[in-house]
Amino acid sequence: xxxxxxxxxxxxxxxxxxxxxxxxxxxxxxxxxxxxxxxxxxxxxxxxxxxxxxxxxxxxxxxxxxxxxxxxxxxxxxxxxxxxxxxxxxxxxxxxxxxxxxxxxxxxxxxxxxxxxxxxxxxxxxxxxxxxxxxxxxxxxxxxxxxxxxxxxxxxxxxxxxxxxxxxxxxxxxxxxxxxxxxxxxxxxxxxxxxxxxxxxxxxxxxxxxxxxxxxxxxxxxxxxxxxxxxxxxxxxxxxxxxxxxxxxxxxxxxxxxxxxxxxxxxxxxxxxxxxxxxxxxxxxxxxxxxxxxxxxxxxxxxxxxxxxxxxxxxxxxxxxxxxxxxxxxxxxxxxxxxxxxxxxxxxxxxxxxxxxxxxxxxxxxxxxxxxxxxxxxxxxxxxxxxxxxxxxxxxxxxxxxxxxxxxxxxxxxxxxxxxxxxxxxxxxxxxxxxxxxxxxxxxxxxxxxxxxxxxxxxxxxxxxxxxxxxxxxxxxxxxxxxxxxxxxxxxxxxxxxxxxxxxxxxxxxxxxxxxxxxxxxxxxxxxxxxxxxxxxxxxxxxxxxxxxxxxxx
Length: 554
Hints:
This protein is an alpha+beta fold. The chain has helices at residues 2-7, 145-151, 233-236, 299-309, 334-351, 368-379, 396-411, 415-432, 443-449, 452-459, 462-466, 487-497, 538-552; strands at 32-40, 43-55, 58-67, 73-83, 88-97, 100-109, 112-119, 122-129, 135-138, 160-166, 169-184, 189-201, 204-212, 218-223, 228-232, 241-243, 251-256, 261-267, 276-282, 293-294, 297-298, 313-317, 356-366, 385-389, 473-478, 505-510.
């Protein structure tokens, strides 16, 4: 269950060696009570109440939670006690997992964690070796991360500490990056620290990001590989915005969409005059903010900055239901996201007449955003140019299978397990697109897969749309992209060059970069967390800028 229980099946390789570093003690002013919202794939699925108190002899974290399917857990009460230096003393928990009653009593002493675990009518004892200063993370209660947040105060890259996933095992975690981020809420604006962490699980490593305030109070947790987010209520609000990146000349705007507003940023060089060529940036899968932040890297933010410097007016926006944008993500399909992007283009033409040349508007989509941009180009014939970055050439169903097979190869699982997982994925894909039954597929998996977005993603077929794309097309790929390998760019180009209307089709392979367009060693997703300080390659952004300039000059 939850983060580590789901994570142990993932495999990865940490790219850098680190040495243990002892962080300074946490500050005393982090005590207080907070509420948190839990999101899965961008949808709220649960809530937690967490209280951190300080007594004369130590610290106590208490709380409760209720998380709906597919996690389906209830924690009626939990208490984790630490001494004054945050060494664990005891844990008690009472609740239910998938409607099965559970209870846990753990005592920490003499380098041991003695667990008495109750599941239904069964009671077992389990004793684990544990470090004296381990952070306790109950496996069904995210509020336990409040202790980890407190311990991270002052931690630097290379800090290593132990966490005990109760009642499973102790594992090491490593800080791979630290960055400041500005968080804007309706009540206030403050600076948070974002810690990129690697959890070294027994069967593979897991990239996690954790945000804290200066006091060490727990703000937010993100597990990208599991599309899992836990956010304090003020930060979880749709009116809030987390920003680690800004550009001189940024202007915050509201764009009317289909019954709601999209929150967007317009960027142009401060010295820019007159009507400029414009670019609309479209982000990828999941809860993408306007900066296209992945593992701490503001991919769209970097692209916007470089294109603005090259003389373009650039718009980037929070996806519907994300950040400060309205709308609901859980009912949206790919065509709905294309309509949102269309609303941005329409707004540019109508509301920015003084600084936008309506005849020179391009759309640039990254990852899934490449497909959305492609669909938009078929809907809006007046769009002057299309750029697809990291876009796939086959159907979404084929891409899901390809990515699954790649992950299984990395995990080095046996042939029988590979076949079992591949067969299950094939049945899920068929059921989600109405081509097969849900029989034999668990309710939890169905709840995750039976959505309008996933059905539209699986069925999306670039080959069918390409014949209706009339715009000049630039296809950009990273030489080390393992999510959507470079061959997809070549296949997209073949489709584009077969169009009846002969327009420019160009391909750029950016050397040494991954799917995020940042320099990488392996290109694997597991490497992303260690690259959080990286910049999008200027080779990529300059290629886009030069191509757009030349295309608009024709």
